[in-house]
Write a structure and sequence with these properties.
Layout lengths: L2 H37 L9 H19 L13 H29 L7 H8 L2 H28 L3 H7 L12 H12 L7
Helix pairs in contact: 1-2, 2-3, 3-5
Length: 195
């Protein structure tokens, strides 16, 4: 592979892995922070920010692996809810498999044997913590894929422009909540308002 093609490939891969890694690093570190704040009254610290950041790297890697699967684009022309839910479930399943295999590899490196894996999984595996983290991974993936799909549908960085530079000419300006409620009330109950 020529040097320029390798560099192009590495840049493309880096551009794909950075957004989910940053998103999940922020999400996981917020979870660790709030958990530690809640448990501070009991003088207990459950997680560390380094573990949360490493987990975000694992999730970013899992997104990269899942994006390489050809069937991930099967619902791209359907209403947005379908690709969002489909990709969320696929990403979640890949992360589940990667995290589970990672725990088994840790067990094996700690001196465990292949024969004792079922006993380790049944008796010593921390299922409650694993499940709680997987639930939050699912919720964060739901948010991530919603933003990703919206970005893809709007195209050309329009979502970034809408959030950070200017209002999009495609989107109508939003009404203040009070004006919106009054407008709805006038439409549904016209007799209550004088003409």
């Amino acid at each position: 592979m020529p040097k320029s093609r390798l560099l192009t490939f590495l840049i493309k891969e880096l551009q794909e892995v950075v957004p989910p890694t940053v998103f999940f690093a922020i999400g996981f570190n917020l979870l660790v922070l709030t958990t530690d704040l809640i448990l501070a009254d009991y003088l207990v610290s459950l997680g560390s920010f380094m573990v949360a950041t490493v987990t975000a790297l694992v999730v970013g890697k899992s997104v990269l692996i899942a994006n390489a699967m050809p069937y991930l684009r099967r619902f791209d022309t359907a209403p947005m809810i379908q690709p969002i839910l489909f990709k969320t479930v696929v990403y979640w399943a890949v992360v589940f498999a990667v995290r589970f295999l990672e725990k088994l590899v840790e067990y094996l490196f700690a001196g465990g044997s292949l024969r004792a894996i079922p006993e380790y999984v049944a008796m010593h595996f921390t299922w409650h913590r694993f499940a709680a983290i997987q639930i939050w991974i699912f919720v964060l993936f739901l948010i991530y894929t919603s933003i990703e799909e919206l970005h893809a549908r709007l195209g050309d960085g329009e979502l970034m422009k809408m959030f950070f530079t200017r209002r999009s000419p495609v989107v109508k300006p939003t009404m203040p909540a009070a004006t919106s409620r009054e407008s709805h009330s006038r439409r549904t109950n016209p007799d209550a308002y004088p003409k």
